[in-house]
Amino acid sequence: MSIIKKAKFFVQVNGYRALVVRGVEAVLGVRPVSDKSVQEHIDLGAGYVIPNFEKPDGERSAPLLELSSDGVKEVPVYDANDVVTAHYRQNLPLRIFSAPGPKARLNLVTDSINSGSLFGGVGTAILLAVQLAKARNCTLRVVTRTQVADEAGFRQVLRCNGIQFRGNVEFSYVGVNSKEQLDVCPGDRFLTTSWWTTESVLGSIAPEKVDYLLQEDERMFYAHGDEWVRCNEVLKRDDIRYILNTRLLYEHMIANGLPHLRDKGIYFEPSFPRALFYWEHDSEEAPPDVGASVPTKRKLFFYARPNNLRNMYYRGIEALDRAIVQGIIDTDAWEIIFVGKDAQEMRFSNGARAIVHPTFAWKDYGEFIRSVDLGFILMSTPHPSYPPLDIASSGGAVVTNRFGLKQDLSRYSDNILMADLGMDQLVDGLRRGVTLAENLPQRKQNYDGDHIDHDWERTFEPVVEVLK
To answer: Does residue 109 sit in the same domain as residue 67?
Structure first.
């Protein structure tokens, strides 16, 4: 019988799909494990071929082949555990080994302390770790997971915040995607900085040695999916201690499913040192001279982070554009400055362009904040966020949004104005903000009467007393 007749007979018995499978067998040099008809290896409903092949040397493989009008193509098959592990690699137990070490050592575990990560929460974590290390008279070790630590950046944070530390500081990189291990000894304690670093450390370290610095309701980083659930599971643990950034966040977390934080948590209010944040405006300065050859303009700072959804980037742009169209913000008298990672170049409806700064060094950031007349800072979470407090600490006016328990921030400064997130309410907030920003004597009075702390050692003292 000729090859063509054999093929036709095979199709009559087994069908065209089986013929394709037999051809693939020939190309790959494999054969079915049993002598059963190839038809038994075909899932006709799904359109997949799942042959249980055995290579000539006896080694098994299980390729998944998809049948289509274009022929047969191999579809990758993943191990269930591998899929989950790959997705949560940063949460896997911290790789450690036992080794002799100092009598006492505090390990600060964070993603990175490089220049792009140092503001706000990471800077606060460094400052708290230093104060704890000083109180315990112990070695401090900074453990980073995504980037090798920038030691100069660490020293810059201390210098700009007026903190001195003469103790021993170590830096270790235990990469999420690498094979490095961390040496640990009985004297080690850990300060974690996120739910994922906390879960990772708790996979290797006893919970009584772990304290968790919580600076936001981290569940709000996500939609209500896998990450939200895992984050919530970590936050529900009652066998570790929590340090919360601001009373607002502390009260919010207790009221939103985490009552154990009343006993397991302690909060502090952040500090804004006068070395960096202070009044640098002339209270009698004249209005901007828009007719000068180089016009002087007031500065409006918009916190522009399109990939941090809680910063309401698109709503903020829309509100700014409406305020410009309505004449609330005169772009001949105001320059609008976008600050934030991934901020886009922007042209408003009247043709005015925004100035974009992705980030600043610490010293440059302080200089910029002292020059700001009005901040427009949106944060749809319970924490006030740092930029409004940075600006108010330097005498600028701020418009920010209400959220949950965050209804009024005059407990910090009367230079911070609140608005709901509705479009009309935000535009009205900008109207009030411009009015206050242009009233320098009132801004100065509010600045002189604020309730913002300016000494990190003092603001951390109650926390250190509990944790030391």
So the answer is: no
Query: Are 419 and 399 spatial neighbours (Cβ–Cβ below 8 Å)?
Result: yes
Q: For the range 449-453, what are the long-range contacts, defined as Cβ-Cβ under 8 Å and sequence gap of 24 or more?
A: 449/414, 450/392, 450/393, 450/412, 450/413, 450/414, 450/415, 451/411, 451/412, 451/413, 452/271, 452/272, 452/389, 452/392, 452/393, 452/412, 452/413, 453/269, 453/270, 453/271, 453/272
In this structure, the answer to whether residues 36 and 61 fall within a common structural domain is: yes
Q: Determine which helix (DSSP H) or strand (DSSP E) holds 169, and give its type and residue range.
A: strand 169-173
Q: Which domain holds residue 191?
A: 90-268
The reply to whether the predicted model has a pTM over 0.90 is no
Orientation angle between helical segments 456-467 and 121-136, nearest 10 degrees: 60
Query: 148 in a domain, yes or no?
Result: yes
Cα(187)–Cα(10) distance, integer angstroms: 73
Q: What is the rounded CA–CA span in Å between residue 449 and residue 443?
A: 10
Mean pLDDT, range 372-383, rounded to an integer = 97
- Phi, psi (deg, nearest 5) at residue 362: -55, -50
Nearest Cα to Cα of residue 334 among 323, 349, 343: 323
Lookup: tokens for 60: 């098994």
Q: Which residues contact 133 (CB under 8 A, 6 or more apart)?
A: 106, 139, 140, 165, 167
Chain centre to alpha carbon of residue 409: 23
Please write the tens of the pLDDT for every residue from 246-282: 999 999 999 999 999 999 999 999 999 998 999 998 7
**Helix ranges, 66-218 (H):** 80-87, 121-136, 151-160, 195-202
- Per-residue pLDDT at 26: 57
